[in-house]
Amino acid sequence: MAQLLPLQDVLQQLLRHVPCLPAEQKPLQEAVGRVLAQAVLADRDIPPWTKSMMDGYAVRSQDLRPDTPWYRKNRWQLRVVGELTAGGVATAALEPGTTLKIMTGAPLPPGADAVAMIEQVEEVTPEGRTEPEFAVLSSRLAPGENVLPQGSVVRRGEQVLPRGWVVRPQDVGLLAEVGAVQVAVAPCPRVGVLATGDELVPPEEQPGPGQIRNSNGPMLAALARSASARPEPLGIARDCGEDLARRIARGLECDLLLLSGGVSKGTRDLVPAALRRCGVEELVHGVALKPGKPLWVGVYRREERPRLVFGLPGNPMSTLVCFELFVRPVLRRMQGQTEPGPHFQQAELAAEFRHRGGRTTLYPARLEWKQGRWQVTPLRWQGSADIQVLSQSNALARFEAHRQHWPAGSCVPVLPLPGGSTAGAATEPDTPLPGGVCDQGEC
Ligand code: AMP
Ligand code: MG
User: How far is the CA of 239 from the centre of ligand 2 (A)?
Assistant: First the structure.
């Protein structure tokens, strides 16, 4: 770990090595959460015809003048020539002095240019008939009133969704409207997840003396899934060159490989050497970041596409921070997103904060909408192994290097964590950090 790289340089460098994966076709319903690999164009105008926005009467607005034969005592009496419901089409143009009863969504007949709301029309139905003979209007209508012109939302051939767009449930409606029943989406990258450490046992096992459960493996798999990727668990590698090499070789078949643990300076931190021996070229080792300093990243070029390999520091908080700052943006870019993040927002610090040290610090925090603004409270945590605080936090607050003190009310960048509720929390977190002090050692 020669010189620690500044945070912003690391991601820039990694994004240069991100491979572009070939797109795949997916049925509309399966496209939610996926990234569009191609822009989607409208195959017809929206709306496809000039339509009525109300249940009412289609009229020629120029008919509603005081100098017309059907004008009497501040009212216009128009002859009703029929009724058109949604799904129907008018067979003839509207003649002067006539009106067509029309339901919401139905196409306006030629000649008509406005719709009078049914509530504002008096219907005159002669004895013995069920259909009205006349519609009486007592006010004028502007051209276009209660009418949506053909193509006014989208013109045929226009783009409705751009390339790089993450499809959400409401987009499915738009895609269905333009007949995009199959859409080209970026593939879900296959992400190998390999935990390393002699002390680790699978979560379903009872740990023996000196052992802990592998929590990073399942967490990284879940994080990968939350980034529209497909995790491939590769188990736990022991801190020994052969076992690491064997599992790394399998992991290098994936589009991206994540390892956790074994990247710092301990005697059993064998991951960088094992990766290098497997042909992975080092790009990054050491970032001016807390937690996450020992991050190792390399690129494997022996396949048709380059593959990025992350050696994430083993502490769960470090793993999470490095995933959010570097891995998630890389996964987004692999799926064609042009703005891969990380997307920080500004929030007001709810309590004073102090830290020391020359590295940018990411602190677990609660982001809440309170009194009309986003407020962030750094949470008390006991170093990067404090896994409980990860569940209490819904964001990471960023404190730049070379500054020690942030008074309450300062504006700081905050990265919301996926799935975290940032709505005004019903309950206060039980461990807000009063006058927060980050006094953890190296992590
Ligand atoms: P290392 O980077 O391998 O030195 O690990 C740093 C710390 O993170 C140690 O306390 C490890 O026990 C812990 N750790 C490493 N890997 C995992 C994992 N997969 N799950 C939970 N804790 C881990
Ligand atoms: Mg280890």
Answer: 7
> Looking up tokens 């520091």, which residue turns up?
313
Name the residue among 367, 323, 116 with its Cα closest to residue 229. 323
Q: Taking the domains of the chain in order of start, what are their residue ranges?
A: 7-21+188-334, 24-46+153-185, 51-148, 345-416
Q: Which strands make up the sheet holding 190-196, listed edge to edge?
A: 230-237, 190-196, 256-260, 307-312, 296-300, 280-285
Q: Ligand 1 centroid to 261 CA: how many Å?
A: 5
Cα of 196 to ligand 2 centre, how many Å?
A: 6
* Nearest atom (ligand 1) to Cα of 214: 20
Instruction: Check residue 434 and give its pLDDT.
Output: 37
Closest-CA residue, ligand 1 atom 17, reads 314
User: Residues near ligand 1 with C-beta < 6 Å?
Assistant: 195, 197, 199-200, 212, 214-217, 260-264, 266, 269, 313-316, 385
* Mutation to probe ligand 1, out of 193, 201, 212 (largest number of atoms < 8 A from CB): 212
Q: Residue 2's pLDDT is what?
A: 63
Nearest Cα residue to 272 out of 281, 263, 259, 261: 263
**pLDDT, tens only, 82-115:** 999 999 999 999 999 999 999 999 999 999 999 9
For residues 443 and 437, give the distance between their C-alpha atoms in angstroms, rounded to a whole number. 15
Average pLDDT, the chain: 92
Task: Classify 345-416 by CATH class.
Answer: mainly beta
Q: What is the CATH number of domain 7-21+188-334?
A: 3.40.980.10
CATH 2.60.120.200 fits 51-148, yes or no: no
Which has the higher per-residue pLDDT, 194 or 423? 194
The model carries a pTM of 0.82
Give pLDDT tens digits for 27-43: 999 999 899 999 999 99
- CA–CA separation, 52 vs 29, rounded Å? 30
Ligand 1 atom showing the smallest separation from residue 195 Cα: 19
Q: Residue 320 Cα, ligand 1 centroid: separation in angstroms?
A: 12
- Compute the distance from residue 189 Cα to the ligand 2 centre, in Å: 26
User: Which one of the ligands is nearest to 219 CA?
Assistant: 1
